Amino acid sequence: MSAAARAVGSAELGRLGFGAASIGNLYREVGDANAEAALEAAWAGGIRYYDTAPHYGLGLSERRLGEFLRSRPREEYLVSTKVGRVLEPNPDYSGGDDLAFEYAVPNRLVRRFDPSEAGVRRSLEDSLDRLGLDRVDIAYLHDPDVYDLDRGLAEGLPALAKLRDEGVVGAIGIGANSADAAARAVREGDLDLVMIAGRYTLLEQPALDELLPLCEERGVGVVAVGVFNSGLLATASPDAGARYDYTAVPADVLARARRLAEACAAEGVELPVAAIQYPLRHPAVRSVVVGSARATSVEQNLARMAEPLPEAFWTRLAEQGLLP
Is the Cβ–Cβ distance between 7 and 219 less than 8 Å? Predict the structure, then answer.
């Protein structure tokens, strides 16, 4: 394990981190006051790891997070952002929005995939400018599989490693929805962390096939995000209108979520409590990152993470075939 990896271990990241996509106007407009209140709730609850990206609201998430953190002691928190998407002026802007990419912001900017060293450095410099910080602690290559995985890994990972070697960032990794893409990045790169979205949750565990064992073997830490599978597991009774992986939930997936909810309820546990804690049961997972633009939801997630769950609870779920 590298020194950088040790610098962002479980104790530093904390069991629960704050994902700042929601304060970038994910799905809906969020007022500045509500975004600040959500961040205040996270800080008051002891959260000290904050994750953002240029992609989130075309920079809005980074600007809001940076404004909040500027008044906090820099040595007391960790920030991660992402590279791979460079933001540029939209030459065709005519008053439209970014809802095609799920963000309720004006589309004055466009995203351009650029994992080259020059692109990675520019992306990071732009992020620091939006954040108003002199450094970030962690930089992830963001969703290279969405664009060109071969190029992303061949160019982006060495560029990040160079930044780490220069001391520009403390740790590097990949952020992806694909467990296979993330596993390939671990095999081919010198990573400290993997941020995996939705692929190691109470509902599904494809990351167990290769990614998590590989990370454990190589000392690469895992940050689990999307643990509610885009909202499907965020309530005690999964609803047919809930999102799953950012889209409508398929009938078979909904049925499995409902079986999990019923099994949890029979044990006196609400489904979201089990969902937010489950990923931390694997030794490679260092933190769960969950975001919300509502202070009450942040407080609720803090309470869910703190609720004690006996080992027998997990054993009974496994005995019913609901967990590996």
Answer: no
